[in-house]
Fold:
Amino acid sequence: MDGMHLISLVLAQHLDKLPFKYKGENSCHLVRMSQKKYHLGLMENFELNPILLNRINGEFRCLKRTDLIKAMANCLPQETIRAGCQVLSIELDPVTKYPQILLSNGSILQAKVVIGCDGVNSIVANMVALHPTKLLRFSTCVARGFTKYQNGHPFLSEFVMMSRGQVQLGRIPMTDKLVYWFVTRLSTCQDSIISKDSALIRRSLMESMEGFPVHAMDMIRNCKLSSLHLTDLKYRPPWDLLLNRFSKGTIVVAGDAMHATGPFVAQGGSASIEDAIVLARCLAEKMNNKGAVVERNVVEEAFDKYAKERRMRIFWLSLNTFLVGKRLDTKSGIMRFLVLAIMFVLFRDPDGHSHYNCGTL
Structure:
């Protein structure tokens, strides 16, 4: 419980310690590029549509997740984080009614409070009835990687998205020499083999991206093989988030364990940070002036308040991501039209999800 308080405080108070190195403009441009075909000739090109992002803090940055984790870890007390321990099972003690956690190293933790942030295949989520069997897969998979330009890259401070058919490329500079990118494409029966070999991933991407601009192809060709990852995309259906429980006694879930979504609106990490801030705030409000000993019912009330506050936010975020993913998935023109119509009605502002304010600690 104290750990979640501290992680949230780190996020709020120690952002100056994060290793931001790229000095771009205060606000970046989002550039969407779509292929434009000339049917009377042989030439094909990409049409650029720059859109200025109006963000609350006037910032649009990209950083490595490991850098964020290290920055937070360095601000926590020693021995707060225990590495190399995977949760195998969790159950309630029949006498105390508090959770018991069995770890992969054979040890058993007798916990007063459990906050499950153990990802898509969450053991804790299964415990509180968010069953992993309800996780579905998009027909789209995603590859991510970094490309380092020894003499500096030529790109502006822009988040660029290019699409050609059902293949989409996103690109954003991290420093003056390092660029992060991702590619989404339809999954194939060979992906389980391809995902285990970085060279095969790169070859697969080059084949999928045939017809993209030369600079985009060069970026993939010259990427750091050690950074390449190809994964399928699991998600929890949005309607499940309206009905399922997020807590049970003094056990609660957050992050992907709570709301696994596709990456199509790039808000998964942000939503997890929101979870931490809201959960810390709910606990702090309920624990205020309660003394050193906190009763079980106080924690349960805090968790119930947290779940109530987060439910509709993550539902709408999940629905938005679900629709974008289905638009990329489907080969049917009629289905794509229906998805676009629903998105136009419900999500007229394509960047509206990024304007949400979860409040302060």
